[in-house]
UniProtKB/TrEMBL annotation:
GO terms for cellular component: cytoplasm. Its main location: cytoplasm. The keyword Cytoplasm applies. It comes from Chania multitudinisentens RB-25. The gene is aat. This is Leucyl/phenylalanyl-tRNA--protein transferase. HAMAP family: Leu_Phe_trans. PANTHER family: LEUCYL/PHENYLALANYL-TRNA--PROTEIN TRANSFERASE (PTHR30098), LEUCYL_PHENYLALANYL-TRNA--PROTEIN TRANSFERASE (PTHR30098:SF2). It is an enzyme of class 2 (transferase).
């Protein structure tokens, strides 16, 4: 297996099945971040991930981390927090601020969300293909996430949190909203501790690609993506003692 170099004149991607096992999922390099190429990638279960200043790299890992919204769950401590939720959660109110905040990581951690990535996804957002969830505490943006819609599947790209539980609340609120409009799956790309605690799990890439093929054909109501406030999470009260 080898890394395929993309042609600047073509939007064709190689089959994800040809991705490397080590590093897991590396499939191709080169091309550009034009909206047409990004959408062609997402339609095939491929996404860009590279450090600023380095060549564009394209990935399709196996296994693939996903979250079925009905499997999203909150810990006891998060449920207690949600009963007195201090946040207001919105959809598509400030995409630029969300992606900029996702890029602001400690220097030791590094970031792949450089200016080139930010501008590319802002273009997707303006075209109605990329969306953001914002978490507000008063007038302050304290958390959020963004990603790309593929019919009834949402490809989550990144999230951030500036205060406890903000990104968790963003994901849980989005899952409820997305499901209410017919959404069925959230792509988390690579499993991490944060998403695993909320219910994400690995599935084989082949299964993910089949789900993608089926779900991207489903059309959600346009109202799903209109800028709006997402109502707060409804949490059952604790059972009475005794």
């Amino acid at each position: 297996m080898r890394i395929v170099k993309l042609s600047p004149q073509s939007l064709v991607f190689p089959s994800p099945e040809g991705a490397l096992r080590e590093p897991n999922g590396l499939l191709a390099m080169g091309g550009d971040l034009a909206p047409s190429r990004l959408l062609a990638a997402y339609e095939r279960g491929i996404f860009p991930w590279f450090s600023p200043g380095e060549p564009i790299l394209w990935w399709s890992p196996d296994p693939r981390a996903v979250m079925f919204p009905e499997e999203c769950h909150a810990s006891r401590s998060l449920k207690r927090f949600l009963r007195n939720n201090p946040f207001q959660i919105t959809l598509n109110h400030d995409f630029a601020a969300v992606i900029a905040a996702c890029a602001q990581r400690p220097p030791a951690e590094g970031t792949w969300i450089g200016p080139e990535i930010q501008q590319a996804y802002l273009q997707l957002h303006r075209q109605g293909n990329a969306h953001s969830v914002e978490v507000w505490q008063g007038d302050e943006l304290v958390g959020g996430l963004y990603g790309v819609a593929q019919g009834a599947l949402f490809c989550g790209e990144s999230m951030f949190s500036r205060t406890a539980n903000a990104s968790k609340c963003a994901l849980m609120a989005f899952n409820r909203h997305f499901t209410a409009y017919g959404g069925e799956l959230v792509d988390c790309q690579v499993l991490n501790t944060h998403t695993a605690r909320l219910g994400a799990r690995d599935i084989p890439r082949r299964q993910f690609l089949q789900l993608l093929s089926n779900l991207q054909r489903k059309v959600l109501a346009p109202e799903c993506w209109l800028p709006q406030v997402i109502p707060p999470q409804q949490v059952e009260p604790p059972s009475p003692a005794g």
